[in-house]
Specification:
Elements: E1 2-7, H1 15-24, E2 28-35, E3 54-58, E4 61-64, H2 68-79, E5 86-93, H3 105-115, E6 120-125, H4 131-148, E7 154-160, E8 168-170, H5 183-188, E9 192-198, H6 213-218
Parallel strand pairs: 1-2, 1-5, 2-4, 5-6, 6-7, 8-9
Antiparallel strand pairs: 3-4, 7-9
């Protein structure tokens, strides 16, 4: 059986987290390592200068006094003997689309797991969505990832709409509602949005624009002019 680690940023008492735990139990052994309270919008913050404490609530449930990224670090360094096959962060009680991704603790937890070499999914849903259905979608996508894997340093950012039309759409991160082929548009049309996101933030398409800067910056300017 696969070993699956789940976390979130809404806290370990989130009902959507419990629903996800139940949904995934049919495809693997699930361990929950989540913040002891809500830690929404903490982005990729980690705790430094003080210990990150955690409490074991049951055999496979741990509450961490820290951020979602702290939860992943604590799980991999102190709780798991061997790394899990997959990490899923969610189900978040609210969408993580467009620029909100920058602030999302849900997405950050998935990225932290990917930094540690573990395939990861961030799963979010509209605040009034049917969370059991969203969790079932997460399980379906998890099955695909466990079978086919993910490219290195890439996570899947999955968003479930208010009312699902039964279909999936591969999307890119948008900036605002109304943009075509984005996560925003997909949810507005009732699709489950699947956006591959990567750790490397280098602006490759604009690299040529800066290619001459190093030479120009290296030219010394006379200070007596």
């Amino acid at each position: 059986m696969h070993r699956i680690l789940i976390t979130n940023d809404d806290g370990i008492e989130s009902p959507a987290l419990k629903v996800l735990e139940t949904s995934l139990s049919g495809i693997g052994v699930v361990t929950v390592v989540a913040p002891d309270r809500e830690r929404s919008a903490t982005s990729h913050g980690i705790t430094i200068g003080q210990p990150v404490l955690y409490q074991q609530l049951s055999p496979n449930r741990f509450a961490v006094e820290g951020t979602p990224a702290d939860c992943i670090i604590a799980a991999l360094l102190r709780i798991f003997r061997d790394p899990p096959s997959l990490v899923i962060s969610g189900v978040n009680c609210g969408s993580n689309l467009g620029s909100d991704i920058l602030y999302s603790g849900t997405v950050a937890a998935a990225f932290e797991a990917t930094l540690q070499g573990i395939p990861s999914i961030a799963m979010s849903a509209h605040p009034q969505a049917d969370y059991p259905s969203a969790a079932a979608v997460a399980a379906r996508i998890a099955t695909q990832v466990l079978e086919y894997g993910l490219p290195p340093d890439v996570i899947l950012n999955v968003n479930y709409p208010l009312t699902w039309n039964g279909e999936f759409r591969l999307t890119r991160q948008g900036r605002r509602a109304g943009e075509p082929l984005t996560d925003y548009e997909a949810l507005a049309l009732g699709y489950v949005s699947i956006s591959p996101l990567q750790i490397n933030r280098t602006a490759h398409t604009h690299f040529e624009h800066f290619s001459g800067w190093t030479d120009r910056l290296g030219v010394r300017v006379r200070d007596d002019v």
